[in-house]
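In the design runs reported in the main text, the only information available to the sequence generator was the tokenized backbone. The following block is the verbatim input for one such run; it is reproduced so that readers can re-run the procedure and compare outputs position by position.
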């Protein structure tokens, strides 16, 4: 049972690494336009998060969703 779980986690992270490479080159600008000017250091820093959250980021990239809109009382007024 543990071997299966470890194997599944390995596949998940492998898919995340495969996803992260093109995402950091092209996709991050679709989700966050401010990231266009992101340096290599920025991309190096966000790489682990991209690998971890790749299903969520893939969904946002495919839907071409920009940054979330803030919905606070300050913005509503």
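Verbatim output:
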């Amino acid at each position: 049972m543990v071997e299966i779980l470890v194997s599944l986690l390995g596949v998940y992270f492998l898919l995340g690494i495969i996803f992260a490479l093109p995402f950091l080159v092209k996709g991050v600008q679709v989700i966050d336009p401010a990231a266009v000017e992101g340096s290599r250091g920025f991309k190096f820093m966000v790489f682990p998060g991209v690998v971890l959250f790749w299903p969520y980021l893939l969904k946002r990239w495919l839907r071409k969703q920009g940054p979330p809109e803030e919905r606070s009382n300050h913005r509503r007024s």
